[in-house]
Amino acid sequence: MKKEVQHLVDKGVMLPLMEEFYTIQGEGFHKGTAAYFIRVGGCDVGCHWCDVKESWNAELHPPTAIEAIVENASKYSKTIVITGGEPLTWDMGPLTEMLKTRGMQTHIETSGAYKLTGTWDWICLSPKKMKLPTEEVYKAANELKVIVFNNDDFRFAEEQAAKVGKDCILYLQPEWSKREKMSPLIVDYVMQNPQWKVSLQTHKYLNIP
Questions:
Q1: Residue 127, marked binder
Q2: Mean pLDDT along residues 118-122
Q3: Over pLDDT 90: what percentage of the chain?
Q4: Would you say 56 is a known binding-site residue?
Q5: Which residues pair with 64 in a beta bridge?
Q6: Which family is this protein grouped under (predicted)?
Q7: Per the annotation, does 26 bind a ligand?
């Protein structure tokens, strides 16, 4: 990447854009609602079960001016979901400021592993064992979504729930490849611990992005 382009990426006025698309939010609190997704490349958290590993290497995705990203988003929806990769790898301030000036609702899906930047109407925190969230993002999270891959993830979920605010909504979501095994365990767990809710990847059942 050219030095001048790298400087703009570091400032957050260009971002490594992997893809952008209009769809139905499939997970968590806003499931079933229309939203425009902006997927930003770059992630070193390294979840072995990640279903978008092609997002990890930021260099594979073209640095794109945020003006172009915002212009595309404005054609489709008032609700914008920034995801990745790990979007907080980059400074989200310039992008969210520009989205807000256009009257859009800004949502983020993040592991919380990096400094919280940007202005957000909704923060979905999905923490990972390999690289835990910052204290700042725990306090700001609107929903906590823990991916359940094995039995130890229930213990991890309770550890994470102890760190978020009292109004944060708690979700357990089966990892897609383990859904048949883990979904019944999640159902039982939520029935015994009703402060939690079940989240499913409903977009995959609907066969949409």
A1: yes
A2: 98
A3: 82
A4: no
A5: 15
A6: Belongs to the radical SAM superfamily. 7-carboxy-7-deazaguanine synthase family.
A7: yes
